[in-house]
Specification:
686 residues; alpha+beta; six-stranded antiparallel β-sheet; four-stranded antiparallel β-sheet; 20 helices; disordered C terminus
Length: 686
């Protein structure tokens, strides 16, 4: 019953998307409000049936209905309820259905909030989103159908991949990543709509920025949780291996970060309109590429799925999108650029945004080339090669330092380049902080040139960022910032600066953990104590932890510093009842100054002796704090705001003068995330 009902729901979703796309494009071309309303109803139908299909598959997973093909692939009677629910995204077919569910919900939200806006742009955007939804519905109805019938019905299944069961982070990592990936479809649809209609007013542009910020925030969270999971589960002591599938999530993050900067310059100065549209398109196309890399099985990675038949279908759709986007951009950008202004002064805030976009683009191309070149080389020559961390580090680290330097310099620069007298004096304190950080790092043993440069420039950027936070607070207080309006005003500027601060913390953590870590392999017998790098490790012995669906053999270490006991570390060898291969799970003692990381190499169950790799990871906790700070700030800036005064449009009205925009306290680096022209009273918002 469930296979038939599930397939029927997916087919209805496919029909709703196909009909909705046709209705939306025709109503947009004709400027027909009745047709636009009907397209929005199709969005409701699409969301209703595909969400019901997702719930139906969850029900099958929870009730262990092995007559459903997907349940037979990833289900198991001993799997706990929370893991059975998370199994929806542990396999290829279920994750593609979830992709469609998230897209449908976001499409419905977009249809609702855009109902009273420009009918033509709204219809075109919804039509583009329907085309994407139709593709994923087609996959779920065909080569990636999770509702196929199984006969004979097995009595049990293999369960989810043990690696995906081994840490709680894997429950949250994929959904966060999907929200980021799928979220890029909304600004993509809106950007294509603007190119088709030739209209890009300030309301529409701000909505593109907010939808992109929403997607960027969850993409940041997904990348952060993925790195954290890798660190806590895989036992190698790292969090980013430049794996092609890891890189697939980084690529759209880089372009959407560039978009957050570019769109601000477009909003405030009517600059870079064409480039902003290119970034909107590129960010979504890179999410499609990333989905292809993980779901096609073409790359060998712990993050990817097995070989499948959807690879050619995916590649064909990406090719179709790429060709369509090139044609639409080439014909539509010229019309939008008629209202664009040239960059008057490179030494300005908007000039620094352009330079930052250039740096982010170089990083994107570097990572894209390193990820795809081995595959292209294998196709052309039949020879397998790999590109490792040295290539990425050599190319990306200088760019990261350049970005930090821009974060230190750009906030002080005014809009329009009208430099205020004595502006250069504002760099005295940040330069002093950079010198102090350089000396402190040397004193603490840092010797790597790029790490030293990162610490110095990060200190400079942090000083400027804290100054901006203080200036934002003073500005809000000076404008009578009491109650909710004052909090919102402060929140917008604060959010952007907190994102900068999160990037700085993450950069320092990456520099420290990559260059100043220590590791050593050791052998222990029960009762043995070893002093190492200021830590005292006392090995107690092995115990068992039986959780029903898995059994963990844990090596227990009591860890002290001096005379003070600081914790217990329990690296384990975990055995899953559905797998014959045990998984080594590291033990981590996290501290603000650095983590003690112990990973099992070998275990002698008869003698209770163990061989372990002990790693000292400096400042890794700063990476998680910095990432969470970026996510929190992104959510803060995305949250709908209250009433603001009216604004001008990008197409028709002149922007503020350079004098107005460069006045003290008018705009700061917070514009990257939060600044936008004011909103008319009563206007809808995403």
């Amino acid at each position: 019953m469930i296979p038939i009902l599930g397939r029927g729901l997916v087919l209805v979703a496919l029909g709703a998307c196909s009909a909705g796309a046709l209705i939306a494009f025709v109503s947009g071309y004709r400027r027909d409000p009745v047709g636009a309303g009907l397209a929005r109803q199709m969005a409701l139908l699409y969301a209703g049936v595909i969400v019901l299909a997702g719930l139906l598959l969850e029900f099958a997973l929870v009730t262990h209905d092995f007559s459903v093909s997907y349940v037979a692939e990833v289900g198991n009677l001993s799997t706990p309820l929370y893991l059975a629910l998370a199994s929806l995204w542990s396999g290829r077919d279920g994750s593609i259905l979830l992709w469609g569910v998230v897209l449908a919900v976001e499409a419905l939200v977009f249809a609702r909030v855009s109902a009273r806006r420009d009918t033509r742009n709204g219809s075109y955007a919804l039509g583009v989103i329907f085309v994407i939804g139709a593709f994923y519905s087609l996959l779920s109805a065909g080569p990636a159908c999770p509702f196929n019938s199984v006969s004979p019905v097995p009595s049990d299944g293999p369960g989810p991949n043990p690696l995906l069961q081994n840490h709680i982070l894997m429950i949250a990592h994929p959904p966060a990543l999907y929200l980021g990936y799928v979220g890029m479809a909304i600004p993509f649809g809106m950007g294509i709509a603007s190119l088709l209609s030739g209209r890009l007013d300030a309301v529409w542009l701000r909505s593109i920025r907010r939808w992109n910020l929403f997607a960027w925030t969850f993409l940041t969270l997904g990348i952060l949780l993925g790195g954290w999971w890798s660190y806590e589960v895989l036992g190698w002591g790292g969090y980013w291996a430049w794996d092609p599938v890891e890189n697939a999530s980084l690529l759209p993050w880089l372009t959407s970060t560039a978009l957050l900067h570019s769109v601000v310059a477009t909003q405030r100065r009517r600059l870079y309109i064409g480039w902003t549209m290119v970034l909107v398109v590129a960010s979504f196309l890179l999410t499609m590429l990333g989905t292809f890399m993980t779901r096609s099985g073409i790359f060998n990675s712990v993050h990817s799925f097995t070989q499948s038949a959807i690879g050619p279908v995916f590649l064909a759709f990406i090719g179709f999108l790429l060709l369509a986007c090139v044609l639409i951009l080439s014909s539509g950008v010229e019309r939008l650029n008629r209202s664009a202004r040239p960059l008057a002064r490179p030494l300005s805030k908007e000039g620094s945004f352009l330079l930052g976009n250039l740096v982010l683009t170089v990083i994107t191309l570097t990572v894209l080339l390193g990820s795809l070149y081995p595959l292209i080389h294998e196709v052309l020559t039949g020879e397998k090669i790999s590109i490792g961390a040295p290539y990425y580090n050599k190319m990306a680290i200088p760019m990261l330092v350049a970005l930090l330097l821009l974060m230190a310099l750009a906030p002080v620069l005014p809009w329009g380049g009208a430099l205020r007298r004595g502006l250069w004096k504002q760099y005295f304190v940040p330069l002093g902080a950079a010198l102090a950080a350089f000396g402190l790092a040397l004193a603490l043993g840092a010797r790597n040139p790029w790490a030293l440069m990162t610490y110095s420039v990060s200190a400079m950027a942090a000083t400027v960022t804290f100054h901006e936070l203080w200036a934002a607070a003073r500005s809000s207080a000076g404008k009578g910032g009491r109650g909710l309006p004052g909090i919102f005003r402060l929140r917008r500027r604060t959010a952007a600066n907190l994102v900068h601060l999160g990037v700085i913390l993450s950069a320092v953590a990456i520099a420290a953990s990559s260059t100043q870590g220590r590791q050593q392999e050791m052998n222990f017998v029960p009762g043995e104590t070893v002093d190492w790098q200021g830590w005292t490790l006392n090995y107690v012995g092995i115990d068992l932890a039986d959780e029903g669906f898995r059994v963990a053999e844990r090596a227990n270490f009591r860890v002290s510093r001096g005379d003070r006991m600081v914790g217990v570390v329990q690296p384990a060898m975990t055995h899953y009842r559905t797998s014959s291969q045990p998984i080594a799970t590291p033990g981590v003692l996290a501290r603000i100054g650095g983590d003690l990381y112990i990973s099992l190499v070998q275990m002698d169950r008869k003698e209770h002796s163990v061989s372990v790799k002990v790693i000292l990871e400096p400042l890794v906790s700063w990476l998680w704090v910095g990432g969470l700070l970026m996510v929190a700030a992104g959510l803060m800036a995305t949250w709908p705001h209250g009433f603001r005064p009216s604004f001008s449009t990008v197409n028709s009205s002149p922007g503020p003068s350079a004098t107005e925009e460069s006045s003290p306290g008018h705009a700061s680096s917070a514009d990257v995330v939060a600044s936008s022209p004011s909103r008319a009273k009563g206007e809808d918002r995403p």
